[in-house]
Amino acid sequence: MNAAFSSWQAFFAMGGYAFYVWLAVAATLLSLLGLLVHTLWQRKQLLAEVSRQASRERRIRQSQQSKQAAATPQSVNSREKSQ
């Protein structure tokens, strides 16, 4: 098996096309890094939104239960007085 380049300097020079090759590599890596950062940011935002929604629903349920609990004894007292 033969090496494609005779030295590291020849590898980095890319046969005279180094500017274009390394610019393409840099653009690709920056795009992938940007995509990774954006995905992680969106995931964090989505999890926070789910947590806020679940908390809101839990507060609504608790409020409804407390209203029902408060309303139940009054209706029992009303029935007892009418009898």
Question: Can you walk me through this structure?
Answer:
The protein is an all-alpha fold and 83 residues long. Helix content is 86%, strand content 0%. It starts with 7 loop residues before the first helix and ends with a helix.
Give me some keywords for this one.
rod-shaped; transport; 83 residues; 0% strand; cell inner membrane; Heme_exporter_D; 86% helix; mainly alpha
Helical content band: over 70%
Rg, nearest Å: 33 Å
Q: Which descriptor suits the 3D outline? A: rod-shaped
The number of distinct β-strands equals 0
Q: pLDDT average, as an integer?
A: 88
Individual helix count: 2
Strand content: under 5%
- Content-based structural category: mainly alpha
Span of the ends, CA to CA: 102 Å
Secondary-structure element series: HH
Q: How many strands, what sense, and barrel or not for the largest sheet?
A: none
Model regions low in confidence, pLDDT < 50 over at least 5 residues: none
Protein name: Heme exporter protein D
Membrane topology: Single-pass membrane protein
Subcellular location: Cell inner membrane
Function: Required for the export of heme to the periplasm for the biogenesis of c-type cytochromes.
